[in-house]
Amino acid sequence: MASSSGSSYPVRYLALFGALVALVYGLVFLTGDKSPTPKLGIDLQGGTRVTLTARTPDGSAPSQDSLRQAQQIIETRVNGLGVSGSEVVIDGQNLVITVPGDDSSQARTLGQTARLYIRPVIQATSPTPPGTPAATDPAAPVDPAAPVDPAAPVDPAAPVDPAPQNRPFPAQDPTDPAEPTDTAPTETAPTEEPSEQDAGSEPGTAPTEATPDETADAIAEAKALRQSEDPTVQQQAAATIDCSAPDPLQGNDDPALPLVACSTDGTAVYVLGPSIIDGQQIADASSQFDTQQSRNVVSLSFDTAGGDTWAQFTAANIGQQAAFTLDSKVVSAPVIQGATPSGSATQITGNFTADSARELANTLKYGSLPLSFAASEAETVSATLGLASLEAGLVAGAVGLVLVLLYCLLYYRMLGILTALSLVLSMAAIYGILVLLGRWIDFTLDLAGIAGLIIGIGMTADSFVVFFERIKDEIREGRSFRSAVPRGWARARRTILSGNAVSFIAAAVLYVLAVGQVRGFAFTLGLSTLLDIVIVVLVTWPLVNLASRSEFWSRPSINGLGAVQEIARARKRAAAAKTAAVAGAEKEA
Question: Does some domain include residue 435?
Answer without folding.
Answer: yes
